[in-house]
Amino acid sequence: MRVPLSWLREYVDAPADPAVLEPALVRMGLEVESIVDLAATVDGPLVVGRVSTVDQLPGVKKSIRYCLVDVGEREPRGIVCGATNFVAGDLVVVALPGAVLPGGFAIAARKTYGKVSDGMICSARELHLGEDHSGIVVLPSTVDATPGDDARGALGLDDLVIELSITADRGYCLSVRGIARELSHALGRPYRDPAAIEAPGATDEPPYPVRVEDPIGCDRFAARLVTGVDPDAVSPQWMRSRLVHAGVRSISLAVDITNYLMIELGQPMHAFDRDRITGELVVRRARPGERLVTLDGVDRALDEEDMVICDGGVPISLAAVMGGASSEVADTTSNVLFEAAHWDPVMVARTARRHRLFSEAAKRWERGVDPTLPLAALERAVGLLVEYGGGTADPRVGDLDAVRPRAAIALPASEPSRIAGVSYSDSQVRDSLVAVGCAVTGTDPLTVTPPPWRPDLTDPADLVEEVVRLQGYDEVPTILPLAPPGRGRTPRQRRHRSVGRALAEAGYVEVLSYPFVASGVLDALGLPADDPRRSALRLANPLSEEEPELRTTLLGPLLGTLRRNLGRGLRDVGLYEVGPVFLPRSADGEPPVLGVADRPSDVDLELADEFVPDQPWHVGVVLSGDAEPAGWWGAGRPAGWADAIEAARIALAAAGVPDASVEVRRGNRAPWHPGRCAEILVDGQPIGYAGELHPAVCTAMELSRRTCAAELDLDAVPYAAPVPAPPISGYPPALIDVALVVPAGTPATDVERALADGAGALLESVRLFDVYASDQLGAGRKSLAYKLTFRAPDRTLTAQEAVAARDAAVAEAADRVGATLRGA
């Protein structure tokens, strides 16, 4: 929001010192982006000149004239100028040699067309006062200036322009009216409301027939008519200057008036060419299939939620956002119908976003506009158009008013003191609320009715903030509350941290993915139609329409991240993520609406919780490329399904699951390869899968062949009791290797568990180090070689004790899985 200080000073006595203005505005919660001194935009001599003579240069085809201009010096200056919109006797603006215009345009005496041009007669565009460069600026005869005077005052360049960043809840400050009101609070100076004017009310007969079919979308619609306007009338220089300094382009007198009042009062308006509308104006929602060509020349398909103004049933304006091309004010317009209405902010916000039309009007409507402004705005618009356009005001006034009164808010007088920690007296609280425009009655509690221009004041907390703001944020003490002693991380948090740290130490890189996925991801993963993971929740208002669903597995986002890394040239990638998945519940009915005024009841909370999806935390791992890189030491080793299983084992070990409780067996689950998929069980319960992805999944996800993955449900793993540190024996170990021949389909973990159970307490560790199969072993047989480590805590084992423990281990394996010693 940009506003000239001179405009503000019409309604509040504000100082011209930026060092006073900026902190005053900041105290009121308005962020000052910049304060620009317009006098500094033109450096050097810029003076008023009076044209003495104008002569067309002979022999020049263009309209180039040589002018003698009195600039208050002894002799007039000769200046060559190509503009034709001035005559001898006119007051003009002259930049003398040595001046530097906006944009770094330096002025110097130079010879052109055989004449020395000793300066330049300036146009509005050259001074950054508008877009018109077809003619120079001609000052009106009423200007109190003589040749040689500084021209900045006559042009409005002796002003300051304040640029503010207005937050969404302070929409009333998108106007001179609102900012002047805030300055009056900050400076303690009287406020003169520009809307406090006598405006006639509705007459029995409107100036033009209007019907509002939807009073929810439009609860007030007012109109006034001005006839006999001079189509050639132009906006006064002061109005054009203020619009330009506010960042609005000057268009025509009628349109400039609506833009001027929008900035001054905060009331967006629209001007129709009365002669280009023929039927009754109808305000309604758009109907299916209707279209409208807006003022920007775009043919738009209308939505049924859009509000439109129709002429004879045909939309001619996208209400509150942008007018239509068919009824806009043109160069020949002589009869102007002004419209000032009040529109539903939610409707306007959705329409603006739907059509991507973020106009200045829509920006104000979606933040809330004072519904009492239409008649005052129309009175001002009619007065300006009659004054500068020479028209006649139609005495009839149309006003369809269905605005509902604001609801009162009960506020305990002590509430601001309690919340802010500052002692405010009852009179301070009351005076602050009255200052912002509230009607206050009662004593304790106070009954407060917010002003119509403050739609953001809806709760007691909003009123408390107004009291604190006007009394000064700097009065609120900076006291940090004492942090209560914490209990440390929860067991769940410690588990997640441990799992992540263990995987990172194993060489995997953590990623954090958005929990949103596209609908097609589950198809790419090859999930069957009856797979529970296909029951994904769809968000009503997703961040991206391309990813509207909540993930039911970590693999979709993880594999997408892997694909992006591979696409950027990385070849050996191992990623992991620890995060929640979202599994919908089968609750019937509708969840209760939980208010914010009080704590919801336990019954409502329990009922609402039935609709909240289950959110178990999973750990996912994906890897592609080489697990061990190649180098001078030899060939590398590509990552395989065994690495995915090992990653699952690392995660479970970090989660505190004893290795004896973990079982790995052949599994079959999408998206894994059916022959290279392992099911992971803890205490006999399946908690995840690991292995190599199905080739079709790799193709659909644009991944390398042999890509591997693992996913475990951490919440399905029971929490282990704290394990005391094992005693460390200082005695030497006894190392014995055994090779057992077992059926080819026997899981290695079953053999390992049997060895551990049979060896007893002396066994310290058992590790598989070789798998061998050949015809010598027999068909359907394989050899598994294990390293057994035996150690006693209190003595050095004898050879007989170690061999006895080994034999017991082999005997147990023989009983359970039919194992025999190789070579025996």
Biggest sheet, in brief? 7 strands, mixed
Radius of gyration: 41 Å
Can you tell me the CATH topology of the largest domain? Phenylalanyl-tRNA Synthetase, Chain B, domain 3
Mean pLDDT: 91
Number of strands: 43
**Poorly predicted regions:** none
Judging by the overall fold, what is the CATH architecture of the largest domain?
3-Layer(bba) Sandwich
What fraction of the residues are assigned to beta strands by DSSP?
Answer: 25-35%
* Number of separate domains: 6
Structural class based on helices, strands and sheet pairing: alpha+beta
The CATH H-level superfamily of the largest domain is Phenylalanyl-trna Synthetase, Chain B, domain 3
**Count of helices?**
20
- Biggest sheet, strands in spatial order? 29-32-33-39-38-37-36
Separation of termini? 93 Å
Word description of this protein:
The protein is an alpha+beta fold. It has 6 domains: 2-39 and 160-187, Phenylalanyl-tRNA Synthetase, Chain B, domain 1 (2-Layer Sandwich); 43-155, OB fold (Dihydrolipoamide Acetyltransferase, E2P) (Beta Barrel), CATH 2.40.50.140; 210-401, 3-Layer(bba) Sandwich (Phenylalanyl-tRNA Synthetase, Chain B, domain 3), CATH 3.50.40; 409-475, Phenylalanyl-tRNA Synthetase, Chain B, domain 1 (2-Layer Sandwich); 491-581 and 616-716, 2-Layer Sandwich (BirA Bifunctional Protein, domain 2), CATH 3.30.930.10; 734-821, Ferrodoxin-fold anticodon-binding domain (Alpha-Beta Plaits), CATH 3.30.70.380. The protein is 25% helix and 26% strand. Strand 4 (65-70) and strand 5 form a beta hairpin. Helix 6 (253-265) runs antiparallel to helix 9 (374-389), helix 13 packs antiparallel against helix 17 and helix 19 packs across helix 20. The longest helix has 19 residues, at 799-817. The radius of gyration is 41 Å and the shape is elongated. The mean pLDDT is 91.
